[in-house]
From TrEMBL:
One of its GO terms (molecular function) is DNA-binding transcription factor activity. Keywords: DNA-binding, Transcription, Transcription regulation. Residues 7-67 form the HTH tetR-type domain. The lineage of its organism: Bacteria, Bacillati, Actinomycetota, Actinomycetes, Catenulisporales. Residues 30-49 bind DNA. It comes from the Bacteria. This is TetR family transcriptional regulator. PROSITE patterns: HTH_TETR_2. It comes from Actinospica acidithermotolerans. Pfam families: TetR_C_16, TetR_N. Gene3D superfamilies: Tetracycline Repressor, domain 2 (1.10.357.10). InterPro entries: Homeodomain-like_sf, HTH-type_TetR-like_transc_reg, HTH_TetR, Tet_transcr_reg_TetR-rel_C_sf, TetR_C_16.
Amino acid sequence: MNSRNAAATRARILEHAQHQFAQHGYAAVTVKAVAEAAGVSPNLITRYFGGKEGLFLAATRVRIPVSNSFDGERSALGARLASSIVERWFGMPGQDPLLVLQRASGERPEAAEALAAFLDSSSLEPLHRYLRASGLGDADARNRAAAIDAFVLGVSTRRRVLRSELGDPAELQAWLAATIQRLADG
């Protein structure tokens, strides 16, 4: 098998794994089911990922491009963050690695730890730095960043993890933008 086919096969396995972990949680997903969905042998999953645990870890690598949300005035932060959030929630239904981690965090302590560490480094701290740079004192910036982080995580948990409907994207975006802005402004 050449490296191009191996990379494509690995990507196909990850895509199916992300979908299944997001839909069913860690405990219910089997290597065999992911292999069948991806059209490969379970041995290939073991070869590429070392088994279910390695597959889960690879499927839950999360990246959030937050830097573009922090370009601009604080007065429009809510609109920028809400746009990014809604784009992610509607653009990656069922396969978002962040959703996979959120759903698995109740079953797997390492998933909860990974989610907390990811949110601290990729969301909370950059937001804290941005708010501090926008003229707020350190404690105020930290408190407002924590409030925004908790609000977004709560909405995400309620609407995505508990499988409630996300609703109309435009209405959701407007509500998120207004609420995030109120939290950012204090």
